[in-house]
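Let's practice the habit of predicting before peeking. Look at the sequence and jot down your guess about where helices and strands might fall. Then scroll down.
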Amino acid sequence: MKINVNKDGKKKSYTLINSWQDVTLDKWLKLIDLQDLTPTQEAIESIALLSTMPKKLVRQLNIADVSIIMQKIKDVENTSATKFKNIITIEGVDYGFHPDLEEGLTLGEWADIETFIQKDIQKHLPEICAILYRPVKEKGKDAYIIEAYDGNINVRAEKFKRMKAEQVQQALVFFWTFVSVLSRITVSYLTEVIQKIQNQLKQKTSQVSGVTSV
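Done guessing? Here is the structure:
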């Protein structure tokens, strides 16, 4: 999408994103951070981030033009694809979304995801995606196998900053739907359950031995 600007009698063209696919996870996280700014500052930073126009020039645009550009950006985001993709490709490598969250998600995977959520989900989206998406080892017509989770996600998380924002959004919608159904299966919940069981065992042991607690 082209933005034509007339300045000092000269016409210059700049490029604005044509599709939400042009927005990477790294850029999307920066856009999320802009929500704490004033509307004017958010508009300036958003246009500079999603176009080739220098920030200095963005500041010189009139309000009407800024309003049009921001509406274009909003329209692009609203027309983003909504179909979830199990397999994505980054730098020529296929990564598969965890194929069996309900039966195959390990305690280690969930513990790491929960940790990143508690720290700051926005800042740790690349790490969360690196847990949910892993290199595809085998792929058939209707199934695929991904690498086992070993906790070493730093390199993959850095690559996932170049993931498309809409891919991340789709994956998170899918994942949070799963989490909402199985929200009780969290490390903190399991800890509470284990503590209750331990307390019950202590009480039964005391009763059997004839000792009562004060």
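How did you do? The two ends are 76 Å apart (CA to CA).
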